[in-house]
Each structure stands twice: as structure tokens, then as C-alpha cells.
Amino acid sequence: MLKSWWGKVTGLEAANKRIADLEGLYELQKSITARKEEIIDDLEKELNESKIACIKLRGTVHKISAERADLRTRLANANGRKRRMTQ
Fold first, then answer.
1. For the purposes of burial, counting CB atoms within 10 Å of the CB of 13, is it exposed (0-12), middle (13-18) or buried (19 or more)?
2. What are phi and psi of 6, to 5 degrees?
3. For 62-76, b where at least 16 C-beta lie within 10 A, e where not — what string?
4. Would you give the DSSP letter of residue 8?
């Protein structure tokens, strides 16, 4: 930064420095915004993958519950036959 002939910074030089500072801040803001959008996209992708995994897991739980109910029914029927045969 240049000084005027009496040793003080001129108004134009101060304005130019302020403009350079603002341009630097603008570039920083743009990079932060871009990174923020990348993070949001990554989180949305992970959320969707988690939702899919949850749906698959829910289907597996329903399948296991149905198999368990079927086994209970078969066991009850077998026990009923066993009782009838022993009477």
C-alpha cells in the first residue's frame, strides 16, 4: 500500500485494499457454499441408502415373523395330534 507524500494512506489506496479484501471474502464464501452443497448432497445420498436398507430390513423382519407364526401353528398342530394319539 502506497502512502501519500506526507506519509498517510490515501483514500483511493484504502478503497482499493477494501475492494481486494471483499473480493477475497466473496471467493471464500463461494467455496464454503460449494462445500456445504457437497456435504448436503452426501448426507441426502446416505439418508436414501439408509431408507432403502430400513425397508429391506423391515421386509426381512416381516418374513421372519411369518415363518415364526407358521412354525408355531405347525407345532400346535403336531402337539394336538400327539395328544389325540395318546388318549
1. middle
2. -100, 10
3. eeeeeeeeeeeeeee
4. S
d(C-alpha 65, C-alpha 71), whole Å: 10
Query: Looking at the whole model, is its pTM more than 0.85?
Result: no
> Hey, what amino acid is at 31?
S
Enter the C-alpha cell of residue 65.
415373523
CA separation for the pair 35, 62 (Å, rounded): 41
Region class of 7: left (phi > 0), else alpha (psi between -120 and 50), else beta: left
Backbone angles phi, psi at 3, to 5 degrees: -110, 150
Per-residue pLDDT tens listing for the chain (87 residues) = 455 555 566 778 888 889 999 999 999 999 999 999 999 999 999 999 999 999 999 999 999 999 999 999 999 998 887 777 776
